[in-house]
Structures are given as structure tokens and as C-alpha cells.
Amino acid sequence: MEVKKISKEEYEKLIPWEKDILAAYKNSYLHMTGSDFLKVAEIYKEITGTALTRSQMGCNTCRLNALRKLGEMYSNYKDAEKEKKPRKTRTKKLEVNNDGE
């Protein structure tokens, strides 16, 4: 199953919960208030096109799985953006001869 890619707008909506989303994705750890999860669940619905059911909203495993899915998409977007931007290189200092030449 291919992971859906998120848009820049969707990525920016998730930024306030970056720490929580990435913790769920990378460490399978979830600690989020109910009100915050409701906001993230709305964004999840926009991105995936599938709303979480009432029973899924009350199930900690389901909540974790939803955040892990978002975390994977978020992380993939972030990595793709890093690859797009060229790295800035420092200019090297000129070597100076001690002879004064």
C-alpha cells in the first residue's frame, strides 16, 4: 500500500502537533489532550478522506495508528522538502603565505 503524499497546506496545518505526530510515528508513543486530538482528527479526515468513527476516537490504539499514519506522511513530506533545497556551502578562506608573497 502506497502512502499518500500531503500538500504543503496540509503539512502546515500539522506543524503545531509536529512533536506529538512524530513521537507517535517514530516511537509508537502518544500523549495528546482530547481537544488537540479532535483538531488533528479533522485534519486526518481532510487528508485521508476517511473520518475516524466514534469508537475509534475512544480507542487509544486507533488514535495511535491514526497519528502514526499522519506521522509517516508528515515525515516523508519533510524529507522530500530537505532534498529539494540545495545546501549552502561556505566559501573557503584563501591560504596566505607566511613569506608575504
Protein architecture, described:
By secondary structure, the chain is mainly α.
Topology:
Layout: H1 8-14, H2 18-27, H3 34-48, H4 54-58, H5 60-84
Helix pairs in contact: 2-5, 3-5
Outline:
This protein is an all-alpha fold and 101 residues long. The chain has helices at residues 8-14, 18-27, 34-48, 54-58, 60-84. Helix 2 (18-27) packs across helix 5 (60-84) and helix 3 crosses helix 5.
Please write the string of helix (H) and strand (E) elements: HHHHH
Q: Helix share of residues?
A: 55-70%
Count of structural domains: 1
**N- and C-termini, Cα separation:** 66 Å
Q: Summarize the biggest pleated sheet.
A: none
Helix vs. strand class: mainly alpha
Shape: elongated
What's the average pLDDT? 86
Low-pLDDT regions? none
Number-wise, the strands total 0
Strand content: under 5%
Distinct helical segment count: 5
Rg calc: 21 Å
Summary keywords:
101 residues, mainly alpha, elongated
